[in-house]
Each structure stands twice: as C-alpha cells, then as structure tokens.
User: What shape does this take?
Amino acid sequence: MDVRGGTTIFDSVPLDALRRRTSQKWRRYPADVLPMYVAEMDVPQPEAVVRAVSDAMRAGDTGYVHGPGYAEAIAGFAAARYGWDVPVADCRLVPDVMLGIVEVLRLVTDPGDAVVINPPVYPPFVQFVEHADRRPLPAPLGPDGRLDLDVLAAAFAAATTDSRRAAYLLCHPHNPTGTLHTAAELAAVGELARRYGVRVVADEIHAPLVTAGRGEQDGARPRFVPTTTVIPSAIALHSASKAFNLAALKAAVAVPGPDARADLARLPEIVLHGVSHLGAVAHTTALRDCGDWLDAVLDGLRHNQRLLSDLLATHLPAARWAPPDATYFAWLDLRDVPAVRDGADPARLALDRGRLALNPGPTFGAPEGVGFARLNLAASTTTLEDGVRRLASALA
Assistant: This one.
C-alpha cells in the first residue's frame, strides 16, 4: 500500500524553517543529523495560542497564575473528548507533569519508599522518582506490551514489605509503546492497589493523542479511560503540553479521584508558585479553542502511521512494529535486523552511520528496550522518508 500522496499538517513547515528553531531537538546534534527523537512536533503553532500569548505579553500580563481557568479548560476538553466530569474544585495546578508527580509522590509515600514502574517506560520516570528520594521498582510489561498483572502483584507485594507505603506510577497512554490501558485493566490494577495498599499516580499527558480508530470513540465507549474514573484513590496528571506542542510553556493540572481529594488538598501552596502564568494562558487557549488543530494533528499521525508501515516494508522489512493506539511515537523492534542481532544498539548505529537521531531503546529500561528504538512520527512526509532510508542504510 502506498500512502505517500497528499499532505498533512506536518508538511506545512519546511525543514529549513525547523532548523532555525533553537530548542533541544534542533540544537543537540550537528546540522547533518536528522532529529527524530525528542517529543517535539514539527508543526506550526495554533494561531489562537500565538495570539493569546502575544496579547498577554503586549498587555504586560506576565505575573503570577491565578484562578481555576486552566482546570476549567481541562474539564471542558475532557467532557467533550472522553465524557469525563473533571472535579475542577478539587484539582490543583502544578508546574508540569513530572514535577507534579514528584509532589504527589511526596504526599502519598515517604522517603525511601518504592515506586513501581513498567519498563520499557519514559526514562525520566526513574530520574524523577529518585529525585523525590524514592526507589523505582520495575514491573516490566508483558511480552504483548501490556500490563502484566502477575508481575505487578509481585512488585506491589515487594514494595509494601514491612508495611511501608508505596506508589505505582502508571503511564497512560503508555510511552513508548502507545498502548491504551482498558477499563478492565485499570479495574484490575485498582483491585491490586487496594489489596496491597499501593497508591496509583497516573501520567496522562498523552491522553489527547489517541489515534486508534477515528476520533475518540470506539462504538459508544471512550477510547481513553481516565484512571481516576476507575480507581477512586488515584491521582492523575494532565497537561496540554504534548498534544499542542507547548513544552516550553509549562503548566499542568493534578486531578484526584473521589477518594484522593483530601490527599491532593494537602499539596503545599508553594507548589503553585512554579506554574507559568503564560503557560496556563497558552494551555487554556489550546484546550478551549484549538480542537480543529488537534484533529488535524491526529489525522496527520494516522497518515504517518500508514506511511511508516509502507516505508518499513519497502526499506527495512525485518523491522517490527505495531501502530500505537496513542502518542506520536513508533516503538521499533529491530532485534531481527542482522546488524542488531549481536546486541548492537540500533539508535547508535543510526546516529553514527546514518546521521539519524532516535531514542535508544535501553534508556526506557534494560533489558526490556534492548534492540528497540523510538522514532518520532510527528514529522513531514519528506522527513519520514529520509529518516527510514537513513535507518535502513545504517542497519544494512
């Protein structure tokens, strides 16, 4: 199947314009390297966001964040996209998702306590858990890339030895696999958490980026199931930063389940001081006014998933991957590629031989990520074609 015809929102910014950007994606490597790694999308910013931030700057509206506007915007977006009634009055603003996770972990665990994670998983999970003076405890995903409840139960038991408090840091949708956890899986997780006394903290930053099917519905059921609607004692972190390409404008919202409201209410007021007012302005505008822009991104990602499948079949047929339910990543299984079978890191080969930057699989967990690499799909047709050709050449 050839899907290379047509254009998407990712084709609207030329590569030379992208290379004038000064963010990490475009400055970490020399100019001959094609960057397809870090979570930045190659898109134009929504005009409504540009206007909102520009207007705030011109008005001198550059002070400290105030009021429930961002949480209300999250609630409106969630009601429309997921059918979720977000408890705005119980939400709390935090500087960003990962710093919010640190603060929530400090509420529900003690220094030295274990925090269970599911490798292969977003590498900063380990770093921020350790920054919070907690111990990451791996409970790897199953061979099918989904939660392994037996492994999770064993990890919960180990985490709560000697009656210690413990938490489970859930990535939903999962990064790097793009897997959506089902309501049944979340219910099973909730039952295990109740049985062992483990608190669930969910990173749901990629929730708006559901590409499975078309739109956010599968029949009459939401494709994304908010964790706190299934696990009442959970606390989830949400932000518009990934879905709307706003990583530089930091802000996030912590949302408690019905049984976690008192815990989140204990969040120190000083945490609010780290929230960017301009970040909240940008995120609020994106969530309220930029749904059409997001839908164009989702359409582009679906197109790019089909395109990548076509390109890999043509240029690197030994590669294995499954189009994700969510996120804008491709988790490439390259273990059957001859150049990788001896244990070589495909991302290192791609960089050294092909001048292509991917995320190395082992950074998401070892041995779980060995032989894998993460590729950013939020790129133009030309970039994807060039990237796959570089990868195939590097692994030849």
Q: What stands out?
A: The two ends are 23 Å apart (CA to CA). Confidence is low (pLDDT under 50) at residues 1-5, 214-222.
